[in-house]
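Human: We require from you a protein record containing the residue sequence and its fold in token form, and nothing else.

Assistant:
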Amino acid sequence: MSGTELDFIVVGGGHNGLTCAAYLAKNGYKVLVLERRGIVGGCNVTEEIFPGFKTDLFSSVHIATQSSPALKDLELSRFGLEYVESDPSTMALYPDGKHLFFYKDIDRTVKEIARFSQRDAKTYPKFIEHWSMVRELMAATFYSPPLTISELLSVLGESDAEEFIRMMLTDCKSILDEWFESDYVKGPLAWWAGKNGSSMTSSATGLNASGIARTHAVGVKYPKGGSGMLSQALAAAVQHWGGTVRTDASVRRILVEGGEAKGVELDNSETLRSRFVVSNADPKTTLLKLVGAQHLNEELTGKVERIKIDAFESLVHCSMTGLPLYKAHPCETIGPCHIATAVICPSVDYYEKAYDAAKYGEIPEEPVVSLTIHTAVDPTRAPLGKHTLRIWAQTTPYTLSNNRNWDKEKDIFTEKLLGIANNYAPNLNQIISQKKTFTPLDIERTTSAPRGSGIHCEMGLSQMFSLRPAPGIARYKTPIKGLYLTGAGTHPGGGLSTAPGYNTAHQILEDLGPLNRTR
């Protein structure tokens, strides 16, 4: 496919860029996807960083994806996408040796909670029902252009709208305190609420309390063979409908001529021309680096420069010769303690203390940590009898205080995380055979995600809905004619939903209409 034949160039082969490209190709457009790395997927990749072990480098769990129209529209199952379920989804671990399982079934979860608080056990089903309604409302806005807050409220009745506003403006800790009395319950709910890297005590974080609700409706699922199988299936769909996916193709700049996007120039100086360009890179990189401020007016440049971005995660990936023996719930063979993600977040205050340390560039003394063994539900990811382990530290700064450098601190940090995990599973040091750590800096280097943030822009209320990523560029279009945005920095935000890619493609199809071109 030569550049003169192209309708669209998609910059970046993340799962949203691929989703957008697949819809455009299916509707008759000639599309080329350019991915900087040698593998598509962006933050959603599965690689053998240890030979024979399939590791989800960054993104992993697929909850929002289960509601995506792309699964059916793009026929992803025919391209190898198959899901397995983790139930129980979560095993909360506590310093006193206790544990609490969260199952897809609400009644089973209630029985677990009753061991800690009869009051909270009675409250939990009401909490899930309440937040499920909120989540369904939010989900209904995912696969459409972003609504303004007033438009969002207009679909609610007056009393529901008032409650929705209150929840939006209240901090998450206060919401959890309203519903529950026990730290044993609130701690793991804070872990679910903080998955987008936000504080529990900042205003306008109340909606995050709904984090766990969706797991009871659709479950916690992973693609068989690794999270990257979604990206691989999307790339196959692009090519099935006549598009082209090209890896090892790093874009240096987007060509702008007379205020219009006309293609791209690669790092190797190769020029590729097209009628339109879609960028899956984050909005700041797209507009300030690939386009350049010289092509933007002063007002828009200021808005883009003010987009808030921060990292919040690091990971240690391990290969194991056996299974962890958790002190709280020892299983010598694969059992619920291995199927569930083990969460070390015993209270909201524990989360917030770790968050505050990271906010000021400190490595938390007690980071929020989770351990996932994907091979417990998908043995195809490792050689027979061996396992993968993913340790996720949810509160990790991008910039370290006192001019410290992540490259020098990484080994110390790795041992800290392994030490915390070993406190709960004392045989870990004996069964871990290989390990590799990704700090926020490593994530940025690998994926080009700014500051190592897979969500591209913070997901606070000031950068959501019609304000994402910034006023005036929230509906996937830019002031550069023919240049569209997609990806985690656009509505509805980060996570594995395919929604930004779906929405961008449908905005384009609304603007241009489908083609009936014979291939």
Summary: The chain has a mean pLDDT of 94. The domain at 3-47+227-307+454-512 is CATH 3.50.50.60 (FAD/NAD(P)-binding domain). The first helix runs from residue 15 to 26. The radius of gyration is 23 Å.
